Amino acid sequence: MNKELFELYSDYLLSSFGKTTATQLSSLVDGAYSHDQVTRLLSRNHFDSKTLWYHVKTIIRQIESDDGVLIADDTIQEKLYSDENDLISWHFDHVFNRSVKGINLLNFVYHAADVSIPVAYKLIEKPIKYTDLKTKKVRRKSEHTKNEDFRAMLTVCCNNQLKFRYVLADSWFCSNENMMYIRHKCDKHFVMACKSNRKISLSEEDKKQGCSRRIDTVDFSEEKPIKGWMAGVDFTVLLFRQVFKNKDGSEGILYLVCSDLECDAEALKAIYEKRRKVEVFHKTLKSNAAMAKSPSHTVLTQSNHLFMSIYSAFRLEVLANKLHLNHFELRAKIYLSELRSSFQELRILKQCVT
User: Fold this and answer.
1) pTM above 0.85?
2) Among 10, 209, 248, 322, which residue carries the largest CB count within 10 Å?
3) What residue segments make up the domains of the chain, in order of their start?
4) Distance of alpha carbon 94 from its chain centroid, rounded?
């Protein structure tokens, strides 16, 4: 792999505000690298989560701490007009409560010392085709469930000796298998959102007798966590209800489950608030790192471009942290610089024709 071209492509993604093509990059560097060389970067390499760890490891070792958090979440980048393949297919998006055509990306972001770094990722591919008996339409499915991918990625992070105390995730990953895996296999704690219909017991006696109730029927009159036993989980957890106001003025309720029995209400809210860092990362991928702006067509080139977007988002985070700017402020500075350059070029061209 050409390391200089690798870094140039990353710079190109961060500085581009439109479609990213091999031809345009070649023109930007005045032909120092040809269109074919740029194309080969994406078509002859196999970038993956292991490659990402290789590039972020040095920074991680500088910022990591025992109180760090590992945040898991997935995002979908719509690709409505792209041809369907193993990577670009239909995925259920819980934000819109419907299936959308696009790329589904599962990310693990590490947060410590006010820095958020991607440390592992998985592109959700659906190579298995089958016919839906009801609709008679051809569907696709993955070889593994997303929760199985979650546990596999968590194992890799632990094997990489990443220092962290909590795993943070939304209700999609709040399964019994995941919670017990985090506690028993990884020896870590978790703070997760859970669905309102999860069954819990409020005493050991109730648990022994199999008596449980939905979490949304528990009396949370006081703003403090309650000890309980979730059905199917073999250890005590803390349960907490957080009430908040939505932007439209409506009231929202968030149920949290935590394995660290020493946490109080303020600690729980502060820890789970860090989960928003992964949402910022996903927004940067889509808005600042040209995640969906490559015209590549094959699964390999699309996957490698997505890796480069993740790597570029990492570089943007490091640079923004050093300059004490957020991602969008830094990109605004780049945009203004490009706009000034375009403005000056236009004035020069106008003088040439007058």
Assistant:
1) yes
2) 10
3) 190-274
4) 15
